[in-house]
Write a structure and sequence with these properties.
Radius of gyration: 17 Å
Bound molecules: adenosine-5'-triphosphate, magnesium ion
Shape: globular
CATH superfamily: P-loop containing nucleotide triphosphate hydrolases
Oligomer: single chain
Distance between the termini: 20 Å
Helix content: 25-40%
Strand order of the largest sheet: 5-4-6-7-3-8-9-10-11
CATH topology: Rossmann fold
Strand content: 25-35%
Structural class: alpha/beta
């Protein structure tokens, strides 16, 4: 089966070669565990190593800060084909003190998943990769979890129909055994990868589930340094 590689070699090996084509893949982890770095790598490597068009959508951090921070670990986003690498910044919407909850959830809100899907269909129907970092601010758009779950389900189906392979990030508390913030993103995803950090172990990553594929099932170490993100698995 065709695989969509993150381009992080040890990580692709954990998955048996990469994500499945047209799948939706959740990355869960506590703050500072490397979710943003991973999501940027996925789109960056897609463009740089595999010549695939991708879109990184930020709901949390401003693009300027992301560009600066990943530059520190060796990802030069200025130096990648701008036909292939794209960023879409929805973070200002939430940061803007004028954006009330009513505005964020209004029918025109670009943070609504139906509008976001329409935006992608209009502008990025030829993309191969999309990363959404993170899902957490969506709780400001949707009143209740049932609505969010339904909308997220429709959204993921729409992306699969477009032939896109998606990475979603979500956060879990530092010492939690949960797989996701809202308790449902993991059920809607074809694969779930958990990043954890502890004083005693350092950083570890585990592929918790992967529909339709064998994968490595234990925790392995990973590092983030000025050499980038490395997963210690051959
Ligand atoms: N230049 C660097 N050298 C070494 N480690 C770094 C460097 N830049 C970032 N890191 C590590 O990566 C972490 C940030 O990673 P990232 O922003 O991807 O985490 P995150 O999971 O998205 O966090 P959040 O939940 O807060 O968004 C930092 O806390 C730090 O430990
Ligand atoms: Mg982040």
């Amino acid at each position: 089966m065709e695989r969509v590689k993150s381009g992080i070699e040890g990580f692709d090996n954990l998955l048996g070669g990469g994500f499945l084509n047209h799948s939706v893949n959740l990355l869960s982890g506590c703050s500072g565990s490397g979710k943003t770095i991973f999501a940027v790598y996925y789109i960056y490597n897609g463009a740089k190593k595999f010549g695939e068009k991708g879109l990184y959508i930020t709901l949390e951090e401003m693009t300027e800060h992301i560009v600066r921070d990943v530059g520190e670990i060796g990802l030069n986003l200025e130096d990648v084909d701008d036909e292939l690498f794209h960023m879409y910044d929805l973070s200002a919407l939430r940061a803007n003190v004028l954006s009330t909850k009513d505005e964020l959830s209004s029918p025109e809100s670009p943070m609504r998943l139906d509008n976001l899907l329409e935006f992608i269909e209009l502008n990025f129907q030829d993309a191969k990769r999309i990363a959404i970092d993170s899902l957490v601010p969506l709780n400001m758009v949707y009143e209740d979890m049932k609505t969010l779950r339904g909308e997220l389900f429709r959204f993921t189906i729409g992306l699969k129909r477009l032939g896109i392979t998606t990475v979603l990030t979500t956060e879990i508390p530092y010492s939690s055994h949960d797989l996701s913030r809202f308790g449902m993103e993991d059920f809607l995803s074809d694969s779930v990868t958990v990043f954890r950090m502890r004083e005693e172990w350092g950083r570890q990553v585990k592929v918790h589930k992967m529909r339709g594929s064998n994968h490595f099932k234990d925790y392995v170490d990973y590092t983030i340094s000025n050499q980038g993100l490395q997963v210690m698995y051959k």
